[in-house]
What does this fold into?
Amino acid sequence: MAGVNATGRPDVRAWLTVHGALLLVLLIAVAGLARVLGEHWRQGSVLLGGALLVAAVLRATLPPSRAGLLAIRGRMIDVLCYGGFGVLIVALALTITRGSLAVS
It folds into this structure.
C-alpha cells in the first residue's frame, strides 16, 4: 500500500517524494495570500505569480512520478499554462502603479 511503511505507519518520505513539489508551490501561494491580506497586494500578487512560475519549472523538470498533482494535463500544456499565467500575474502586479485594495 502506498504511503505506509512496513510498520503500518504513514510514510512521510514517500508522501513528500510525490507531493513535495505541490507543497512548495502551495507554501509560496499562501505567503502571497498573506501579503495580500496584509494590504501589500503588489508583493502578494508577485508571490502568487511566482508560485505559478515555480510550478512551471517543477513541472518541466520533474518526472511524472514526482510531479504529483502538478501534472494535470500533458507536460507541455501544464508548463505553458502555469508559466503563462505566472508571467501575466507578475507583469500586471508590476505595471499597476496606483490604487489599493482598501475600500473606503
